[in-house]
From TrEMBL:
Highest taxon in the source lineage: Eukaryota
Source organism of this protein record: Arabidopsis thaliana x Arabidopsis arenosa
Pfam family, one: SQAPI
Ranges where the Cystatin domain occurs: 1-91
Listed InterPro entries: Cystatin_dom (IPR000010)
PANTHER family membership: CYSTEINE PROTEINASE INHIBITOR 5
Protein's UniProt name: Cystatin domain
CDD domains referenced in this protein's UniProt entry, alphabetically: CY
Length: 93
């Protein structure tokens, strides 16, 4: 179904972790940050021409950094070899 946002059924699916790690890696390169994934807290997806994933993720800053929560939105278009595009990555807590 196109248009609406729906919860990701299996938040523990390894592909969800891959999307979160992609978002963190892109953010780290752009901002020269040392963020590391701790866990994917929740997520939802929207079918458009491709799929948009919106994830709430807990990350740490380096090895001993405090945990912070971010929201990341990643777009997976159906026609690209490297199918992920980071729409945004923002601190929410």
């Amino acid at each position: 179904m196109e248009g609406g946002w729906f919860p990701i059924k299996d938040i523990d699916d390894p592909s969800v972790d891959d999307i979160a790690k992609f978002a963190i890696t892109r953010n780290n390169k752009k901002n020269n940050s040392p963020l590391k994934l701790q866990t994917v807290v929740s997520g939802e997806s929207q079918v458009v021409c491709g799929i948009i994933f919106r994830l709430i993720i807990d990350v740490s800053e380096g090895e001993d950094g405090d945990s912070k929560t971010y929201e990341a939105e990643v777009y997976q278009p159906p026609w690209r070899d490297n199918p992920l595009v980071l729409n945004y990555f923002k601190l929410i807590n």
